[in-house]
Amino acid sequence: MVPFSFAGETFFATSSGALYRPEQTSLFVADLHLEKASWFARLGQFLPPYDSHATLTALAEELERIRPSHVFCLGDSFHDNFGCERLAGNARALLQELMDKVAWIWIIGNHDARGIDHCGGVIEPAVEMGGIVYRHEAFPGEPLPEISGHYHPKLRVNVNGRRISRRCFVVSPTKIIMPAFGSLTGGLDAHHPEILRSVGADAAALVPVSDRLLRFPLAA
Questions:
Q1: 83: domain CATH number?
Q2: Rounded distance, CA 215 to CA 200, Å?
Q3: 3-state SS assignment for residue 77
Q4: Percentage helix, strand, coil, to 5, in the chain?
Q5: Residue 151 in contact with residue 192, Cβ under 8 Å?
Q6: Strand partners, 175
Q7: Range of 162's domain?
Q8: Which residues contact 215 (CB under 8 A, 6 or more apart)?
Q9: In this structure, how many other beta carbons lie within 10 angstroms of the beta carbon of residue 84?
Q10: How many structural domains compose the chain?
Q11: 156-181, pLDDT tens digit by residue?
């Protein structure tokens, strides 16, 4: 984990795309998009049906390493409103095991607005905690510092003639947009005008690498 300061508080970013706030002993993840593969399968596009278990396994590793008391999932935790009902037995058992260990809060997203009420935990449209607002999609008019997801930001750079893409946190003085944590999620270029409009001026892409954060300014 790599520490950085936001809104006067210390946060730790992980290379998997999670965010930890030690003052609140809370772990934040965004855009799990559980059961995305099974959603595509219903439309006739068959993908390996292991995305939910892979995502939850990665989340389990973070919980084991960090030991938070609370987990906040910042929306689009399921790919659609019926994703919770389609969870395979092993994935459902793993999710229940994780939820038995910590207080679990689901923030409502645009994909799962009515689809997380069968999986336990607490469901909220947004949460304000310690002077910071946590929601799914950034609200440009929010007066408080805000952390959100929704856009799945990725930084794309050229290195030695190769195009490399990495999930990243997009950060400004008052906003953080988290990367997607899910194993089967695409990403929007961090330079995209919609992302920059949402975070405001002085934005940068932060890429956790080992014991440091690589910072890339994002020009409007």
A1: 3.60.21
A2: 17
A3: coil
A4: 25, 35, 45
A5: yes
A6: 146
A7: 2-217
A8: 204, 205, 206
A9: 21
A10: 1
A11: 877 677 777 788 999 999 999 999 99
